[in-house]
Amino acid sequence: NKESKYFVETKTPTAGLKRWQDAEVDPGRAVISKGSIIVADDGEIIDGRHRAAAAIARGEDAISAWVPLTR
Predict the structure, then answer these.
(1) Other CB atoms within 10 A of residue 63 CB
(2) Percentage above 90 pLDDT, the chain
(3) What span, in angstroms and rounded, lies between the C-alpha atoms of 15 and 68?
(4) How far apart are CA 27 and CA 30, in angstroms?
């Protein structure tokens, strides 16, 4: 896992993610090379909705994500 001052990079279950199914989200527009998505503590995707939608379409049950660090 990678860690910054406020976020930690970890595998996050796709089942708890929010906003990847919004109408404007197209899994075909995902740019996987952008890396991990960014997720708020309530599961809302801050950045990476297309990447999350593509992972879910591929049947993945977890995705690499930066999530808020809790100590």
Answers:
(1) 22
(2) 87
(3) 18
(4) 5
What CA–CA distance (Å, rounded) separates 50 from 32? 9
Distance CA 4, CA 13 (A): 21
The residue among 22, 71, 20 whose CA lies nearest residue 50 is 20
Coil, helix or strand at residue 63? strand
Q: Measured between alpha carbons, how far is 12 from 39 in angstroms, rounded to an integer?
A: 9
Find tokens 């999350």 and name the residue: 52
> Could you tell me if 12 and 36 are in contact, meaning their C-beta atoms sit under 8 angstroms apart?
no
Q: Is 16 helix (H, G, I), strand (E, B) or coil?
A: helix
Of 18, 53, 11, 13, the residue nearest 32 (C-alpha) = 53
What are the strands, taking DSSP E only, across 24-61? 37-39, 45-47
The whole-number average pLDDT for the span 10-38 is 94
